[in-house]
Design a protein that fits this description.
The complex is a heterodimer. Chain A is of the alpha/beta class. Chain A has 2 domains: 35 residues; 130 residues, Double Stranded RNA Binding Domain (2-Layer Sandwich). Chain A contains 4 helices and 5 strands. The mean pLDDT of chain A is 85. Chain B is elongated. A 7-stranded antiparallel beta sheet of chain B has the order 4-3-2-1-7-6-5, with helices on one face. Chain B folds into 2 domains: 36 residues; 138 residues, Roll (PH-domain like), CATH 2.30.29. By secondary structure, chain B is α+β, with helices and mostly antiparallel strands. In chain B, a hairpin with a 2-residue loop joins strand 3 and strand 4. Classes of the chains: A alpha/beta, B alpha+beta. At the A-B interface, helix 2 and helix 3 of A face strand 5, strand 6 and strand 7 of B.
Chain lengths: 177, 191
């Protein structure tokens, strides 16, 4: 019996020491606070003006989609609370603002999709809308540019793609300002 | 009776009344023509006092004090177009409207969160059959500029057969519209 215990002890000690080594290695491999990537410098702006999506000859987007995208975007940006004023396109009051960020939308893709097709087949009929979102200053210098896509994949009306897009832009605003 | 003598034959009464009717009819026509000509020449669209409304309209988005996707009644009164649902209401001055776009779509008969749950609860994919049932609707997109020149847009989903008349009514009370080609409806939406 004593022999058995004696024989098992070196094996047990090897297992324990191996586990301790693994634990120490994993702890050391974890990035410490100094290894974290430095957060990108946040943009600043007192107020923002949201411009309408630019019209494109190659890409025809129905007007209800364009308007829904714009209105949802205004709602989401107001919801972030990052700006004192959210000005709409053409608002004369924005001209007097000193620290103004301008948000421009350049359409890059649009798939009409179909609610019926989505709900019947599950895999077909997705609606999507994609824009290049540009944040510029008054002089036109691009401060931030990102491609954002809004989608309805399974359930819901086609126009819900615009609210999905706006939510994603709201997230970009929250992260960048 | 002398053959060379003319005798005045008394006119029958019904002939006289016919002539009187003809004269009065012409007079009425002349007055009506004059009035219509005057209204055409004036070239102004006067605000009508008549109020017309379309129920079961869904305001998808765009009115300031109305939450998205609310169903209510759209009313044209004077020079304003309003939307009312419960306590929420919003309106647009027709003179500020810069354009109106119309489109056709189809909507699922059984939709929304409850509808989706019902569809999912039917075994053997039976819910998919329910998804085949849909009805046509008309989508009216209205764009306008407020007093500061800021762009606004609102989307209304109307029961089929109301959008064209509503657009004409809005144009009648001062809304501005541009000529534009509507993009073709997606193939799968056509029935």
């Amino acid at each position: 019996m004593k022999r058995g215990i004696r024989a098992a002890f070196p094996i047990f000690s090897m297992v324990v020491s191996g586990a301790a080594l693994l634990l120490a290695g994993s702890v050391m491999a974890q990035p410490g606070p100094q290894d974290k990537p430095a957060p990108a410098q946040k943009l600043t702006g007192k107020s923002i003006q949201v411009e309408r999506a630019q019209a494109s000859e190659d890409l025809v987007i129905p007007e209800d989609f364009r308007v829904a995208t714009y209105e949802n975007l205004i709602r989401q940006i107001e919801k972030t609370g990052k700006f004192e004023h959210v000005y709409r396109s053409g608002d004369k009051r924005a001209a007097g603002q000193s620290d103004l960020v301008i948000l421009k939308l350049v359409p890059s893709a649009y798939t009409a999709g179909s609610q019926k097709q989505r709900e019947v087949t599950t895999i077909k009929g997705a609606t999507s809308i994609k824009f290049t979102v540009q944040f510029t200053d008054r002089s036109g210098k691009v401060l931030l540019e990102k491609e954002v896509e809004g989608k309805v994949r399974f359930f819901g009306e086609n126009l819900n793609a615009t609210s999905d897009f706006a939510k994603k832009v709201g997230k970009v605003v929250n992260e960048s300002f | 009776m002398n053959s060379g003598e003319w005798q005045s034959i008394p006119e029958p009464t019904n002939h006289r009344t016919r002539r009187t009717f003809r004269k009065s009819g012409m007079a009425i026509f002349a007055v009506a023509f004059g009035l219509s000509a005057a209204s055409v020449c004036s070239g102004q669209t006067k605000p009508t006092d008549a109020t017309s409304s379309v129920p079961d309209v869904k305001c998808v988005i765009g009115l300031k004090d109305v939450k998205p996707n609310q169903t209510g009644t759209i009313t044209v009164s004077g020079t304003r177009v309003g939307f009312v649902t419960g306590k929420q209401k919003g309106d647009i001055d027709a003179h500020q409207i810069t354009d109106i776009f119309l489109g056709n779509e189809s909507r699922q008969d059984i939709s929304g969160l409850g509808g989706t749950a019902v569809k999912a609860a039917i075994p053997y994919g039976g819910g998919r059959i329910l998804s085949l049932f849909s009805h046509k609707v008309e989508v009216m997109t209205v764009t306008w500029e407020d007093d500061n020149g800021a762009f606004h847009g609102a989307i209304f989903v109307l029961p089929e057969g109301h959008a064209t008349a509503l657009k004409a009514q809005l144009v009648g009370i001062g809304a501005h519209v541009n000529a534009h080609v509507e993009p073709p409806a997606p193939k799968e939406e056509k029935q």
